Amino acid sequence: MGYLRVTESMTGFQKRLKRGLTLISTEQLDLPPMIFETEGLWVEIPKQVQDRLEQGRFHLSVTKIEHDALWAKTQNNLFFRHSG
C-alpha cells in the first residue's frame, strides 16, 4: 500500500448505436489532464515467477490476488479467503 498521484487524460470518444454497437463516429477532445492523489496497492512479481505463471494457465491468478487484496482493504480485514 502506498500513496499514488494519478494522471488521466481523455483524448476522445466513439459514438455507437445501442443496438449492435455499430460505430457512428470518433470524436477528438482537447481537455486538460485530471490529476488526483489516492491510495494504491501494487504487487511486484519476480520475472522468473511471472514467466512461469504465463507459461501455464495462471495468468489470471495475479489479477485475482490484486482484487482480493483490494477487497480485503475495503472490508478492513487482515485475513481473507475467496471461494469461487
List the SSEs and their pairings:
Elements: E1 2-8, E2 12-16, E3 23-28, E4 34-40, H1 47-55, H2 59-75
Antiparallel strand pairs: 1-4, 2-3
Distance between the termini: 25 Å
How is the quaternary structure best described? single chain
Question: Helix content range of the residues, please?
Answer: 25-40%
Radius of gyration: 19 Å
* Strand fraction: 25-35%
Based on CA inertia axes, which overall geometry fits? extended
The order of strands across the largest sheet is 1-4
Total strands: 4
Could you tell me the mean pLDDT? 81
Encode the helix/strand succession as letters.
EEEEHH
**Total of helices:** 2
Poorly predicted runs: none
Based on helices, strands and strand pairing, what is the structural class?
A: alpha+beta
Major beta sheet summary:
2 strands, antiparallel
Model description:
With 84 residues, the chain is of the alpha+beta class. 31% of the residues lie in helices and 30% in strands. It is built from two helices and four strands. The chain has helices spanning 47-55, 59-75; strands at 2-8, 12-16, 23-28, 34-40. The longest helix is centred in the last third of the chain and has 17 residues, at 59-75. The model has no long low-confidence stretch (mean pLDDT 81).
